[in-house]
Amino acid sequence: MSSAGQSTVPFTIPSVSGEVSDAVVKVLDSGWITTGPQTAAFEQEFADYLGAAHVVAVASCTTALELCLRGLELPPGSAVLTPSLTFCGAINAILHAGHRPVLVDIDEDTLVPSPETVAAAAARVRPAAMIVQNQGGYPVDVAALAEAAGLDRTRVVEDAAHGPGAARGGKPVGAESFAACFSFYATKNMPIGEGGAIATSDEGLQEKVRAMRLHGMSKDSWKRYLPGGSWRYDVKQVGLKANMTDVQASIGRAQLAALPEWQRRRAEIVAAYDEAFRDLPGLTLPQRNLGGIQHAWHLYQVRVPDRDAISAELEAAGVSTSVHFIPANQMTSYRDILGADECARVPVTDRVGEELLSLPLYPGLTPDGQDRVIAALTEALRTRS
Fold first, then answer.
1. Angle at CA 299, nearest 5°, toward 185 and 323?
2. For the residues 110-117, what does the mean pLDDT come to?
3. The model's pTM
């Protein structure tokens, strides 16, 4: 309870379609609960939603990133560009794939790397590949960043964990990507609980990651146990245990049908925040929908002075917040791996990272809950003006 005796406004509550329960029960009754027909159906439906040629469902966005990097078949220890303002899973994916992260600074207005910051990082090394991130739901300009890095688009992996619902130039994120990796974690726009997917326009890549998600086996268990199937299989490339189950896929199919309405509700909440905060002193609003950009609004990230104190004041007022993200260069393990010099090359990330605060934004946020968020942040900032 807050000091005023009211219940806390959570940072997020997962949205769940009313069709989920029936969908899961049907799978449980079917006698087949691991990767099978529901997974195949989910892959096709998500591909249709994105307008993508292929979708491969996997265990998480982190494993999706690793599988894509492995699918590039880079020389061991290759330099892979990545923003430092990212979730640790992206850095781990590079390391687990056997490569070296090279940190890229951000543009403080968009919170994603710019062609200038990418070119500066690429000038220090000869990058073999790059991960780009759709921060908070803001879709990056993949073509511009690839050109700045001196890389072909087939060497760019998109971290689209925040991406469902985002578009650039009228095309959804993932529609024409060489490799776009999505997350269905519990807090995401389309939550399954756990899970991820790879959208790709490349037939060869989809064949590789489809095999590698199940140890590199040439046939999954569904194909082996179909009538007339054979137990015989081969392992042509070392892979991971990274498949999605039919239980997860059935949830995903129900959630996907509800996603457009959830996205509409997110946009309503964002519009109300924008109106309330437009002239609030000391506050920087999130990236805008400019130049043919459709924001997915996974996060409503503001920048505030004295961020930690303001976050504590909001918590005391019954409003939960979060931070996305603690920069990777500030993490002990990555500092040990990358070294102090590499970790000092992202000064804008370090500065902006101390100001970022993510406010509650989810379809189930009530008007009363949003009013409490607005009132709490307004009070915290006006006492400082």
1. 85
2. 97
3. 0.96
